[in-house]
# Entry
Amino acid sequence: MLSRIFIKNYILIDELELELDKGLNIITGETGAGKSILINAIDIAFGAKAGKEVIKTGADKAVIEITIFNEKQNINPLFEEYGIDNLGEEIVLSKEITQTGSRSRVNGCLVNQEFIRIFRELFLDIHSQHQTYSFLQPKYHITLLDSYIKNPKLDEYKKEYERYKNLLQELENLKNASQKTEEQIDFLKFQTNEIEEASLNSLTEDEELNNELNVLENVEKLKELTGSSYWSLSGDDGSIIEGLFQIKANLSKASSMDSNLEETESELISAIETLKEVSSSLRDYSSSLENDTERINAIQERLFLLDKLKRKYGGTIEKVIETGVKLRQELDGIEFSTQNIEALETEISKTETALTALAEEISDKRQDYAKVLSALIVEKLEKLELPKVRFEIGFEKTNLSSNGIDKVEFLISTNISEDLKPLAKVASGGEISRVMLAIKTIFAQSDNIDTVVFDEIDTGISGKTSQAVADEVKELSKYMQIIMITHQAIIASKSDRHLYVRKTQDDKTSVEIKILDGEDKLKAIAELASGGITDESVNFAKMLINN
# Structure
C-alpha cells in the first residue's frame, strides 16, 4: 500500500507530505479545488508521462516521492534483475521532473520505464474517466478478459504469431526479389563482379597509391636533394659533421680547464650522434630510390580503376565497399528466393495450422471463463442497484491475429424489456461507472494488487445506488488500499482516512490537502450532503458515519 506521499513544486503545490492509511482513503473538496492533482501525481510517479509544465512556476524542478509498504508482493527477482537494494517492507519510489526531462528512482537507484511498468502492475491500478472511455471500446474487451484468465498459452501464441508474421514478410520479400527480369539480374551480377574483382581491402588505398606515385615520378629530384644533403653532412672535406668534430675537440680541451663546459660538450656529442643518424638515413633513402616505370604504370591503372568505381558507386572507397555488400546481398537474395519460396510456403502452412489449433484452444478457454466472469459481474451489478441487469461477453470468429481468432465485446441490458447490446451503446454514465466498479473489484481481487485508485467512479449515481457503491467500495477496502475521489456524502462517510483538498488564492494560487477527523470530518460530510453546514446536515452526517 501507499503509506506516504511527498510532493514539492508540483503544479499548484509548494510542498506537501501526506500519510495514507490502509483501507479506504477518501478525497473530497470543492469543484475545481484540485482533487485530481494528487491522483495525477501518483500516476506520474508510477510512470505516466509528465512534461515540464507540471513544475510550479518559478521552480527548477518538481519532485514526487511515494513510500510503499509491501506485504504481499515478492519483489526480490525484479530487484535482483535491475540491481536494486531490497531494504525490507518499505520501498521508496521517486520521480524528478526537470526543464529537460524526468527520471525515476527506486530505493535511490535509477530505473527505466520498463521497470516502472512492471513495478506498477504489482502495486497500483488507477481507474480514471479516460480509462472508462477505453473500457467502452470493444478492442479493449479481449484484453480485459485475457487479463482475468491469465492463460500462459496466450504468451506462447503471441510469440509464435510474431514468428508467423515474419515468415509472411520474408515470403513477400522473396517473391518481390524473384520477379526481377533476367536483364536486371545480369546487370546486378555485372555490378557485383565489378566491385568484388577489384579486391578492395583498404579504405585509404587511393591515398596510399597517390603518395607512392608522387615519389616514383620524382625519383631523380629526390635523389638529388637527399644525396646533396648527405654530402653536406658527411662529405670527406669540409662537411658539417667534420666541422663539429673539430669543435668537439676544442671543447674537450676547454672543459679540462673549466668543468662548467662539460655539459656543453656532452650536448654537442649528442647532437653529432643525431646528425650521424640523419646522415645515414639520407644515404640509405637516396640509394633505395630507383626508376620503376612498370610500377608507375601499375599504380596509374589501379588509380584509374578506383576512380571509376568511386564515380559509379559512391565517391569513396568505403562507399564502394558498402555498395558491393548490398548488391551481393540482393543478388544472393534473388538466387535464394528462386530456390526457397516453396520451402518457405510449406513452413508457413505448417505454422498457420499449429497457430490455428492453439488459437482454438485459447478461444475455448476464453468462452468458458467468459461465462464465469459474466456471472461475477452480474452478481456485483445486482448489489450495485441494477437488479434486472444481464451481462454477457459476446464472441465472433475472425482471421488469425495477434489476439487469436476471437473478436470479443461486452454486451449488457439494464432493463428486462431490452435485448443485450454493446456496452457503449446502452449504458448511461451511472451504469458505466457501476460496470467499471464491478470489473475493477473482480480484477483487483484476482490480481492481488495492493492499491486501487478511483477517480470519480461515482459519476451519475445517487440515493440507493450511492449506498450500494459505498458498501461495495468499503468491502473491497478490506482486501486492499483504496484511494477515491468522491462527491457523495454516503461514500465519504465510509472512509478510514479523509483527505480534504482546498485551493487558496491570496497573493498566489496554491493547493492544500488536509487530513480530517472528528469534527472536521463531520462538517465536510455534512457539506457534501447539503452544500452547507446546518444542524440538519450535521445530524445526517453523524447518521451516515455511525451507520
